[in-house]
Design goal:
This protein has 344 residues and is of the alpha/beta class. 46% of the residues lie in helices and 11% in strands. The chain has helices at 8-13, 34-40, 45-49, 52-66, 79-83, 116-119, 121-133, 145-154, 162-170, 172-196, 213-219, 221-229, 249-254, 268-275, 294-308, 328-342, and strands spanning 71-72, 88-91, 95-98, 138-143, 200-204, 238-241, 259-261, 280-285, 314-318. The strands form two sheets. It has a seven-stranded parallel β-sheet with strand order 1-4-5-6-7-8-9. A two-stranded antiparallel ribbon has the order 2-3. It is globular. The protein starts with 7 loop residues before the first helix and ends with a helix.
Length: 344
């Protein structure tokens, strides 16, 4: 197994000089790749995650095709919830769906502590498989407490998060108990990935942008901080990402991450000022830009890089996940362009 501490991705996480700006894409392993669709066929994504050889191959596919600087574990944010028996599935075309949504204090007992070797051996086997063969760092991940709570309470993806906010504001003691348990689950999940060999982790608080800064600071930040603080002793880079979080970026940085992801709605240089220049930054090409003709894609990529202006600590990524209809050759060209444009 090669020593990856000198890799461009990990160097950028530490804000050290790099031979080129590292690139990876959220949802780089998935429906945009014909080889993925052929390999997966039909069936639940959770079935594939439960099959280590399959999950290993799916994780490797975009690394081979695109030449990205990091692999991201093929998994899902609901895996630890399912593993402890809460009752959740990922429905194609919909997303996470909960059989019996979280509704009150009696449901807390459905969220027992995660025992990784017993509950998620398939994830650990996948991680160990990958670190044996990868020549780039493996990024593990978990869902942040707020985002996972929103699925459990709403029962499915939501545009308003009305039930979630009502519980958060109207039953603060219950809310605290819920996201504290979810923080423990997320922490157990990512610690196990790192201990199995992952080189870094990302906490996805995808839907935190639905909150005001005051709501986030009072009701969510402490749980996210608990996850990041619980990883500090492992010494791996910690990345924090959310969508629509332009007003929360300073608070995201305060949660304890080393790198903060920025979506496409905020100019990346302005986002870095909000985060603080002592942190790394990740982003932030609009995923929809990848559907445009190549000259337009190239213009947008160069725009992101021009705003960075060569400052160490940038990891190039999209502002959210790869859209399923994206031509994968465009992603490969983006990697090549970023590498060429930023070569030392």
């Amino acid at each position: 197994m090669p020593d990856l501490q000198d890799s461009p991705f990990l160097r950028a996480c530490r804000q050290e000089p790099v031979p080129h700006t590292p690139v990876w894409f959220m949802r780089q392993a998935g429906r945009s790749l014909p080889e993925y669709r052929e390999l997966r066929g039909t069936g639940s994504i959770l079935d594939a995650i439960h099959t280590p050889d399959l999950a290993t191959e799916i994780t490797l596919q975009p690394v081979r095709r695109h030449g990205v600087d990091a692999a991201v574990l093929f998994s899902d944010i609901v895996v630890p919830i399912q593993a402890v028996g809460f009752g959740v599935d990922v429905v194609p075309g919909t997303g996470p769906v909960v059989e019996e949504p979280f509704a009150g204090a009696g449901d807390l007992e459905r969220l027992r502590p995660l025992e990784p070797e017993q509950d998620i051996p398939y994830v650990l086997e996948t991680v160990r498989n990958l670190v044996d063969v990868l020549e780039v760092p493996l990024l593990g991940f978990a869902g942040a407490p707020f985002t996972v709570a929103s699925y459990l309470i709403e029962g499915r993806p939501s545009r308003t998060y009305a039930k979630t906010k009502a519980m958060m504001l109207g039953e603060p003691a219950l809310w605290h108990d819920l996201i504290d348990r979810l923080a423990d689950l997320a922490l157990g999940f990512v610690r196990a990935q790192v201990e199995a060999g992952a080189s870094a982790i990302q906490l996805f608080d995808s839907w935190a942008g639905a909150l005001t800064p005051e709501q986030y600071e009072a009701h969510v930040l402490p749980a996210s901080r608990k996850v990041f603080d619980g990883l500090a002793d492992l010494g791996v880079p910690r990345v924090h990402f959310g969508v629509g979080t332009g007003e929360l970026l300073g608070l995201f940085a305060d949660a304890g991450a080393d790198v903060v992801g920025v979506d496409w709605r905020v100019p990346i240089d302005a986002g870095w000022e909000r985060i603080g220049l002592d942190k790394g930054i990740q982003g932030n090409l609009d995923p929809a830009a990848c559907l445009a003709p190549w000259p337009a894609v190239e213009h947008e990529v160069r725009g992101v890089l021009n705003r960075i202006a060569g400052r160490p600590g940038h990891i190039f990524n999209l502002g959210h996940g790869v859209l399923p209809e994206t031509d994968p050759t465009v992603l490969t060209r983006i990697v090549e362009l970023v590498h060429e444009r930023t070569a030392a």
